[in-house]
Amino acid sequence: xxxxxxVTDATVRYGDVxxxxxxxxxxxxxxxxxxxxxxxxxxxTLFKTVLGLVPTDxxxxxVLGRTGPVARRRGLVGYVPQSExxxxxxxxxxxxxxxxxxxxHMGRRRKARTADREAVAHALERTHLxxxxxxxxxxxxxxxxxxxxxxxxxxxxxxxxxxxxxxxGVDKRSEAHITELLLRxxxxxxxxxxxxxxxxxxxxxxxxxxxxxxxxxAHGPPEEVLRPETLMAAFGAPAQEEEPAWTP
Length: 248
Description:
Rossmann fold; 33% helix; globular; alpha/beta; 248 residues; 9 strands; six-stranded mixed β-sheet
């Protein structure tokens, strides 16, 4: 099976802070990989590195055989951010957010064509947001906001999706909707790298899991990575960023 994400010996520093230390990770196409770790373990940095937003001091990153920037420009990789990274007060409609996923398919003028509008309508329908398409993005509930950004990735037709804490701040109903949607995307052959603190969600959603603490501590089937002795290897290590500690 071909690799969707290949990270080889990737090291990233922010000044004197070592964010990633020789990370090597391969995720095959059509797989859901859970990304686990304490706050400050490097999960968000890994996402930014795969997307080509943060350069590596050493190592190599490929998405479907391309560099991160090339994969991003070609719309091959989509990103669902954490809620904290979004300005919910910005006056933009749900439909507009989803249409942003089509920018890579448009010309320089970014003028939506029939195919773009159809792709947006289809993505809104799949995420059960059609009736909320003209609502301001900040007026949605937590689960609806998450689904709006998943819809953006669907409209983009990205083959690889990076999801940063998609279950944070959502109710159980929204969690079930998002899980069902992600599993359908996997059935379509898309590859998902999902950062999550919800360990109970991992076995049902993920084919494999990665435990990260600046470097890869474990990578394999969820039942192996979630062993208490394996998790302790991460929880007993000091975080490199000043964020609240995470307890399983």
